[in-house]
Write a structure and sequence with these properties.
Layout: H1 2-26, H2 30-55, E1 62-63, E2 67-72, H3 75-83, E3 91-95, E4 101-105, H4 112-127, E5 139-140, E6 145-149, H5 162-176, E7 181-185, H6 194-210, E8 214-218, H7 222-230, E9 234-242, E10 247-254, H8 262-268, H9 273-282
Parallel strand pairs: 1-5, 4-8, 4-9, 6-7, 7-8
Antiparallel strand pairs: 2-3, 9-10
Helix pairs in contact: 6-7
């Protein structure tokens, strides 16, 4: 046993001697090794971006003063639908001096948030050096800032409710927006009494418009749709809905506000007909 233990010790000592010898030989090439590691990392990153671009059918669009995008697709949604043997409906949109802000309205589950996220994701991908899934004839403007308010950021730790978290985001957006800012706000003004949340959202929209920012804002509030008609550089858009078949079409149509189709959506998911009828009576 003692002899075996001594052999193990000698083995470890010999390993140390070999490692020291190797270290002494290669230390003179340390800077070259560091440079090689950096280059390998860069090549691996470029290759990964190229593979992603190939898998998602991405292109390099033009860069210009305006944003005019054709056939934009959310890549993750496209992947999911492809797995279900379904075709994604591409998105066309434009942001320019005469159409800086697009206010999207329409039914729940009709594609408002997906449209907003598609715009934001493609913009961020391009500004991060990635090719983007859209038509090659598309043109993007590169913004200095991209401000996003999507989802529910309520926090017990920070003592933030749903509405106060949205107000905090709106405060930051208003304070730091400019004519070189993209703003993406989902369901503006929600999380509180619509009687007060609507006017607050309207005031926020006015301030963002005054700042000259560009972007997409989604809403269900009628006063926001009405305000969009009056503000210069702001346009309404609707997510289309097939009333006859009670299904969303997931198509964005510019120039007119959309309806929430509350009762149609309720009927489509199988809500009790008597309940829907009673809701109509109470409207």
């Amino acid at each position: 046993n003692n002899a075996l233990a001594e052999l193990h010790i000698k083995k470890r000592q010999e390993i140390v001697v070999i490692l020291r010898s190797l270290t002494t030989r290669i230390v003179v090439y340390l800077e070259d090794i560091k440079l090689g590691v950096q280059r390998l990392g860069a090549f691996d990153f470029i290759r990964a971006k190229a593979r992603l671009a190939s898998e998602w059918s991405c292109v390099l669009p033009s860069i210009g003063e305006d944003t005019r995008v054709k056939a934009a697709k959310h890549p993750l949604l496209a992947d999911r639908l492809r797995a279900e043997n379904k075709e994604i409906i591409a998105l066309d949109y434009e942001l320019h001096a005469d159409q800086r802000l697009i206010v999207i309205s329409g039914p729940n589950a009709g594609g408002k948030s997906v449209s907003l996220k598609t715009v934001g994701l493609l913009q961020y991908m391009l500004q991060s050096g990635f090719l983007v899934p859209c038509s090659v004839v598309s043109t993007f403007h590169l913004f200095e800032n991209i401000f996003i308010d999507i989802g529910d950021d309520q926090s017990i730790e920070s003592d933030l409710s749903t509405y106060s978290s949205h107000l905090k985001a709106a405060k930051h957006i208003i304070n730091f927006s400019s004519s070189d800012t993209m703003v993406l706000m989902d369901e503006i003004g929600t999380g509180t009494d619509p009687m007060f949340g609507g006017p607050m959202a309207e005031a926020v929209l006015e301030e963002i418009q005054k700042k000259g920012a560009y972007g997409i804002i989604t809403t269900h509030f009628s006063n926001i749709k009405a305000k969009a008609e009056k503000l210069e550089g702001v346009i309404n858009a609707a997510m289309l809905f097939d009333v006859e078949n009670l299904v969303p079409l997931y198509k964005l149509q510019l120039g007119q506000p959309g309806s929430s189709f509350v009762y149609e959506v309720a009927a489509n998911i199988g809500l009790n007909k008597k309940l829907i009828k009673r809701a109509k009576q109470l409207t």
